[in-house]
User: Which sequence fits this backbone?
């Protein structure tokens, strides 16, 4: 069974609204093992809707349509479905009862003529009561294929999906089982990563597929398996992951929806350790990542953002000689920043970053993208140099993630 | 001229990634007056890609394709385009030079055989150099129609769109005259804003349309006008904007793609003033916004992120009595934070934020979302209380933007 999603709404085609409905639906279908062939967004235009329905029926077995069911003039999905199925609208009493209940519960008063029409549905469909809104869902069957029309309001669509459609489809299609797992990596680009793990990738069995999902500073690896049972597939995937873990132990920081800042936060919490940061080129983004995790105040004390050399000296006790002799972007200074911060904040760990984010400030010796990161702990201070790219925003992001990953590695061996 | 967008990537079809690329592209095309007929997301599957291309060429004049251009095995767009256009890959020296530059700048060492292939393009295309990444864009023409293939990494796609594709398409399609202007507002929600400006909105002429584009803490208002000449439309739009400016002077902080941090940065630079921040609940996000602007080091000295009371006392000279008596989230403490920071960093202005971002830490008197913001300057210190919502991430964002907007207002009257 193959599914397809059609999202109807002018707002999607002018870039005013991101199509999160389709993403949610695809995720839900994926979880019950029904692959989605295509997601199509089109405007509230009858001819375009009919063309899309024809194409979708040619490709797929189940077509989920959202949007265009409201009471206003630009909502034309229902009329279009009537002409597509060569039928007409009929009044559906249970949907009208639902409408009355909704009006009563929300104190909306009389139901106008325009809104009464919301209880009308094409004669050939099975109406699906929408307990969270006024437009019913509609289930159509034709030549062994299914088309479902749903409101575009996210929680109404989700309600009808969860109540009727997902259970119904799962029952119809119980042969195919799919499971997947995501591996989070940091510090290595997609292409170099693919070379490092090429042999491992080539040895994957036919029923397990690998996808690379790159983001600035991170690459997620998604393994999708097909088989008889979810348990069996997940076991197979886990075996492959444990081999991978040995290949790139430094790069893998987590699984599923883990973020690096969550993983670091968990490690600090478990070990009852405290942290501070001292940032120059990352300008607060590292601290922002750390404090975006709820409960970060349990381990995070604070940060000094030392954008000028004066501040590095006054707040972090970096020596004026080091600043003069080596410059702010140097091993010496970044180490003094970490050590100074650790002492002044009185924490177990301190992470410091100093670099040239760009676009200005680069030299031949220290081009834009040069970043030094240091970590101080009771066992001393270590520093590492990175060469990132030319884009200010991404340099800030990559430097912050690299700093978190260095800290993560330190936390798993040290302390 | 009608456009269509095809997004290629397995991750879109399993609901792992929201298709923000397509939304961005649709918005850009809409802004230069080219309507988007359809957005289609499909998997990295050759047969499905070819079917989608056939359908798109039947509907539309310009087809923008993203994704599947990476060096890994699952990226098959380039091969598929070759078989679609019945051509083969050829080596493109300028793309290889770009690749070499990229490798040199990032210190990635030797270019492997796999990565060298990134400089190969179908023989019938015009390659578009990708200055921000390794996969070039590709411009194809066939039977008077255009197909463009772009990398799926958002900033790389955006770079090539802005540098080549949007200007080129705008030049090809100059019959329809459309012009627009965006007004940036801060500090007022979409629905309250729409009430405030309802009369103004109702008086807009037929040929000028208003769209609300809400983001956390900000609402952009986009005015789109249609007419005979761009100059005439822009003149009409400007007249409407000057009326609006009188209605909501505090909320409007800029126009077009202005960000609040850029506007604040410009004001500081013009007036030769310096700034520091002292942050508690925003955890570095305020400093991050300020330092995301290139050249921020001209006016920004640094920040103390005082996540614990000890740090507020030790680094910002907040008195222990005030912390004890009023608590960290109070008018008294936030004022002392701003004054202490201003003295210690020796700047003209200091902005401080202290609040409860959530999800924990709220009380009946000070619920989650309570935030105090203070601004200190030579003319003294002022503070304002805000009540935001329950969502940690959005509270951090809204508090940081509110702080910047307070500073902006101060900078336009004070100093």
Assistant:
């Amino acid at each position: 069974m193959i599914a397809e999603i059609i999202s109807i709404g002018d707002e999607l085609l002018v870039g005013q609204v991101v199509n999160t409905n389709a993403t949610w639906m695809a995720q839900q279908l994926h979880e019950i093992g029904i692959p989605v062939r295509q997601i199509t967004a089109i405007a509230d235009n009858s001819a375009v809707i009919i063309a899309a329905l024809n194409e979708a029926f040619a490709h797929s077995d189940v077509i989920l349509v959202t949007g265009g069911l409201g009471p206003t003039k630009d909502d034309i999905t229902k009329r279009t479905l009537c002409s597509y199925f060569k039928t007409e609208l009929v009044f559906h009493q249970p949907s009208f009862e639902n409408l009355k209940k909704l009006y009563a519960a929300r104190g909306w008063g009389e139901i106008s003529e325009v809104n009464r029409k919301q209880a009308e549905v094409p004669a050939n469909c099975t109406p699906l009561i929408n307990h969270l809104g006024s437009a019913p869902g509609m289930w159509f069957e034709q030549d062994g294929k299914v088309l479902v029309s749903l409101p575009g309001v996210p929680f109404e669509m989700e309600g009808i999906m969860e109540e009727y459609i997902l259970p119904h489809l799962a029952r119809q299609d119980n042969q195919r089982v799919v499971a997947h797992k995501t591996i989070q990596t940091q510090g290595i680009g997609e292409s170099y990563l693919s070379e490092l793990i090429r042999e491992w990738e080539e040895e994957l069995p036919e029923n397990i597929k690998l996808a690379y999902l790159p983001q600035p500073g991170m690459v997620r690896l998604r393994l999708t398996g097909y088989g008889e049972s979810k348990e069996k597939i997940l076991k197979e995937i886990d075996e492959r992951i444990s081999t991978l873990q040995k290949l790139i132990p430094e790069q893998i920081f987590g699984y599923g929806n883990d973020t690096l800042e969550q993983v670091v936060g968990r490690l600090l919490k478990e070990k009852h350790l405290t942290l501070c940061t001292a940032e120059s080129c990352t300008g607060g983004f590292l601290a922002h990542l750390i404090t975006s995790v709820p409960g970060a105040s349990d381990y995070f004390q604070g940060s000094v953002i030392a954008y000028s050399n004066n501040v590095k000296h006054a707040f972090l006790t970096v020596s004026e000689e080091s600043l003069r002799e080596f410059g702010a972007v140097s091993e010496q200074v970044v180490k003094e920043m970490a050590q100074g911060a650790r002492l002044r904040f009185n924490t177990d760990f301190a992470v410091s970053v100093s670099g040239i984010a760009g676009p200005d400030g680069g030299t031949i010796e220290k081009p834009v993208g040069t970043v030094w990161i240091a970590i101080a702990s009771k066992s001393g201070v270590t520093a590492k140099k990175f060469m990132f790219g030319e884009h200010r925003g991404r340099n800030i992001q990559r430097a912050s993630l690299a700093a978190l990953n260095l800290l993560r590695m330190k936390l798993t061996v040290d302390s």
User: Anything to note?
Assistant: The mean pLDDT of chain B is 92. The longest strand of chain B covers residues 178-186. Chain B has three domains: 3-172, 178-255, 260-413.
